[in-house]
Amino acid sequence: MPIRTEVSVEFDGNIYEYGIAFEIPEGFREPRVKDEKLTFDGVVVYSRVESQVDLVATLTSFLVDWHVVAIPIFQI
């Protein structure tokens, strides 16, 4: 069963929401990122499912190691 954490922050009248879920699949020794998402005022900035990260504004997709959280990669 995944472990999910979500946070919502209001800053300068804008709402930032971030959520991430971790899981330990059968046969794995370490947790991996199951999914991750950042929104700004309800608009998705990026979303991720396992290793696939999608940047919505630029229509860009790339892969990130399952064991790495993606949010520190971006300077938003």
Write the layout of secondary structure elements.
Elements: E1 3-11, E2 14-23, E3 32-40, E4 43-49, E5 52-55, E6 60-63
Q: What does this protein structure show overall?
A:
The chain has no helices and 6 strands. The protein has strands spanning 3-11, 14-23, 32-40, 43-49, 52-55, 60-63. Strand 2 (14-23) and strand 3 form a beta hairpin.
Write a short abstract of this structure.
This protein has 76 residues and is an all-beta fold.
| Proportion of helical residues | under 10%
- Biggest beta sheet attributes: 6 strands, antiparallel
What is the tally of beta strands?
A: 6
Order of helices and strands: EEEEEE
Highlighted features:
single chain, 76 residues, mainly beta, six-stranded antiparallel β-sheet, 6 strands, 0% helix
